[in-house]
Amino acid sequence: MEPAPGAPGGTGEGPSSSSDPADPGAASPPPPPPRQEQQQQQQPLSRYESQKRRDWHTFLQYLKNHKPPLTLARCSGAHVIEFLKYLDQFGKTKVHAAGCTFFGQPNPPAPCVCPLRQAWGSLDALIGRLRAAYEESGGRSESNPFAARPVRIYLREVRESQAKARGIPYEKKKRKRDPSAATDASASASSATVAEESSEAGGGSSASAPPAAGGTSSATSGSATSSAVGVRPDGSSSAS
């Protein structure tokens, strides 16, 4: 009778523990993480990036629905201005007409029939996001329609007209100087002036000051002292 494989003295090799699927100690590769966990591990987009993507999708949809349809390569500054005017129907800012009694009043006391428009600040921020999205999508900066000169002129006209109609000037805020810095600068200037005046005064007094000991003044003083003191024949002196 031949010995069973794996038995003592047998010629067969016993099963390996690493290849035994029933062995609880066998090493097995970890399962791949689900796709949802991978998406959650990705860093979420910032508010600016999310808004930029929505704006870019809205503009591309506008070009698609345009009659006739437009491609991004054929888009110009004039088409961008048309897009901004198209967005005015979704605006929420009251812009008074020139004939309105509330024209130029920032806080009108009663409602009026003037239309709602997109605020200049919203349009300016929108153009900035679309200009960045255009170049991120492979567009060249020199052919960027959102940076075209007509678009800048249009935004400036919207800013000026809305400023007059709403009575709210759109001006850049000037930086206020720090009062402590201004005081320090004034004190430093005063100290420098005083030091300069003192230097000039010191130079003039040094010119008129008596010379040091051993000079002409000392000799003159010695002469005056000699005249006041008599010298005796024995070499002693006596005061006159």
From TrEMBL:
Compositional bias ranges of the Low complexity kind: 14-26, 36-48, 180-196, 206-231
ALOG domain ranges (all copies): 47-174
GO CC annotations, alphabetized: nucleus
UniProt keyword list: Developmental protein, DNA-binding, Nucleus, Transcription, Transcription regulation
Places the protein is found: Nucleus
Keyword Protease on entry: no
GO-annotated molecular function: DNA binding
One record GO biological process: mRNA transcription
Positions of the UniProt region annotated as Disordered: 1-51, 164-240
UniProt-listed PROSITE patterns: ALOG (PS51697)
Family, per entry: Belongs to the plant homeotic and developmental regulators ALOG protein family.
Name of the protein in its database record: ALOG domain-containing protein
